[in-house]
Amino acid sequence: MKKQDINISSLVDMIERGVLQLPEIQRRFVWQASRVRDLLDSLYRNYPTGSILVWETNADVPTRELQTHGSPTRQEPTLLLLDGQQRLTSLAAVIKGKPINVRGRTRAIDILFNLDHPEQLDELTEVEGDEDSPFDDEDEDSIIPEEEEIVHGENIHSMLQKRTFVVTSRAMEQLPNWVSVTEVFKQTSDTPFLRKAGVESLSDARYDKYTQRLQRLRMICQYPYVMHILERTYDYQEVAEIFVRVNSLGAKLRSSDLALAQISSKWKGYLTQLEKFQEECERSWFTLDLGLLVRANVVFAT
Q1: Which of 229, 248, 267 is the last residue of a domain?
Q2: Mean pLDDT computed over 292-298
Q3: Are 139 and 208 in contact (CB under 8 A)?
Q4: Which of 70-79, 138-147, 174-183 is predicted with the least confidence, judged by mean pLDDT?
Q5: Could you read off the pLDDT of 160-181 as tens digits, one per residue?
Q6: Which domain holds residue 8?
Q7: How many domains would you assign to the chain?
Q8: Which residue of 113, 169, 237, 251 is surrounded by the most CB atoms within 10 Å?
């Protein structure tokens, strides 16, 4: 199996040219806008975000195009995307400003960037429930929700101002320090965004900070992914088996596991205390899962 480093800009270009396509075994695009927001935040901070797996083949296998595909320039696809569809579809949609076509409806993925975000990480990733919501796949209006539309009040507004990215809402996009991620990628000039933020001259104390952050945002296009390439010697049945294994092996972390990691990072000795209490309960013939204890803590704390 070969591998190569390839940046996001090149991957998006491959989608535009129809070089990257999907095998029929791939599921449709299912990410919600909040997942795209968190991906952008990780890329902006240069955090690891996984790798890409493709199959290089000229075999006559059933394929379909990504929802953000451009006009194919060749008759046969050269690379079939096995792992990375959700990330690349999201990035292509945001960078190129193309809507996602899901079940016959097109929706844009609009994300806002905070020019005035705090220097230090001051936000936690939202932990989703262990069970899939019945609305995630079935309710079309929940595919790309305007999640910030539902928040009101000064406290929530202050909380959002500490974020680096948010899902677009009519209220947030009117604020001077919030700019469209797609528009930043589309334009090479910083002037429109600086003017919106009220920066009129080079002597403004915010000029350097804002221009550096806009440049850092655009550098997401240069973020390098490791692309693993299955060679032509594999047949379709074997590739399908690889696809299943890649998407099923490994322990799936529950939401309580993720919450435990976040709490432990701020509460020294938290896990030790939980395990000690768990052992005390076990001696009294009460077997309590750590996840249940975390949930109980959250209930009492909130």
Answers
A1: 248
A2: 90
A3: no
A4: 138-147
A5: 888 999 999 888 889 999 999 9
A6: 2-248
A7: 2
A8: 113
Closest CA to 117 of 195, 47, 32, 175: 175
> Distance between CA atoms of 282 and 260, rounded to whole angstroms?
20
244 and 291 in a single domain? The answer is: no
Q: Which residue has the tokens 């074997």?
A: 238
Buried b (16+ CB within 10 A) or exposed e, 105-129: eebebbbbbbbbbeeeeeeeeebee
Quickly tell me which residue has 């006559």 as its tokens: 60
Q: Does residue 279 share a domain with residue 139?
A: no
Q: Give 251's pLDDT tier (boundaries 50, 70, 90).
A: low
> 79 with 116, same domain?
yes
DSSP alpha helix (H) spans, the chain: 8-16, 33-44, 85-96, 134-138, 154-161, 170-173, 181-186, 191-196, 207-218, 236-248, 255-266, 270-283, 290-301
d(CA 184, CA 165): 13
Q: Quick one: tokens of 120?
A: 């230090």
Contact between residue 146 and residue 32 where contact means Cβ atoms under 8 Å apart: no
* Per-residue tokens: 90: 């999201």
- 187 and 288 part of one domain: no
Does the model's pTM come out above 0.85?
Answer: no
Cβ atoms 107, 141 nearer than 8 A: no
